[in-house]
Amino acid sequence: MGTFSSLEEAREHFKKDRFASFSGMVLDELGEDYSVCSVELTEVHQNAYGGVMGGAIFTLADLAFAALSNNIHQPTVAQQVSINYLSSVKGQKLIARATMKKDGKRTCTIVVDVTDDTGRDIAQFVGLGFKL
Asked: Can you give the pTM of this predicted structure?
């Protein structure tokens, strides 16, 4: 599989990402070159206008990035990330799908596409991981 011997081991490890865990974010799938995380949206995730807060979207994408990058090499930390918000959320759930674009000797590049449960493109996150 990778650094983690099972999905359950990875889930247990990322429970220590307390902000994501307390926000209801979960690791659904983990492979050698991808990960999937999701969150059921509640009022906790809302901004002052009733939409989903950008920080909630970012945190979900960051969790998917962390799961994949640390499955490739542990520990890996974010060296640089960016996010483009594409659309407002219309569904009740967000899904973040991380895919490996480049696995180098000291760094890795991962793209995370965030959609809602209606299939709407919500955000795209690109992260450069630094392997410690």
From this structure: 0.96
